[in-house]
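Why does residue order matter? Because the sequence determines the fold. Keep that principle in mind as you read this record.
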Amino acid sequence: MVGISASLVKSLNDLGLSNYEASVYAALVLYDNAEAKDLVGFLSISKPSVYEALDHLAEMGLAVKRVSKPARYSAVSPEMAIDLLMGNHKRAAHLALEGLKKLETEKVPTDKEDALWTIYGDANIGYKIRDLFRKAKSQITCIIGERYLPCIERCNIGNVSLRLIVISDSPDIERKLHEQFPGKNADLHVVSSEKFMVPPPFAPPEFVKAHKFMNFANTLELIVDDEEILMIPPFVSGSVSVLNTRNKGTIFQMKLMSQLNWKRLIDGEEYPFPPPPQKKKRAELKK
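Structure:
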């Protein structure tokens, strides 16, 4: 007789059934209809466990109990069973989300508000970018490379003020951005990688040398409401990590650098601040 695979039981576990419930339901599908003793023998599990699983399956609408002596059970169709389980999941997810969002508005402050956190992996970073866009209340300032551009493609920010620089050589990016973020609150710009790679004139020689090894597709500087930041340095090409913090000093420093980049790349200012005074030559001093 065909057995019940572990992968099938695991899939039913993921949909909310226990091991016994998953095994009993699968056995009922196999048997068409069966008495409890048939299932005990086939599954090699105890009679109380089989009866408990049958009762719960019947309560969930996944099994039907036939009035007979002894009682016989049959499974509803697999399609109906999956629909019922998915419906339960959606209802549970909705209730859980409502409860968690309520808790989110009642956060308990801790003494670790200024901690510097590191988030690893593209998936986790993508979730965090979308989460910050979603939670923004007044303003978002962002410089983003093409690698993380898909993370904001479906973000709806409403009337939040957005200042966005995208580093990309794709000709159609700017049009798509204006379609996604219409209105006067969006200041959107696309800067080519070639332009972004030009070091600022006030950069020290060491910075100019390091500039050659940067991968600007990985760049991310995201400031939300002047309260939280994400930052990815453009030095790596593979798996990356992102700095995440609410530290006020770090936010101020990143905001300053963002303003300098904005003035240099968008406003065309070569020197966002006055260059340092030149030292006078000794001959001039002697005069």
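Residues 67 and 73 are 9 Å apart (CA to CA).
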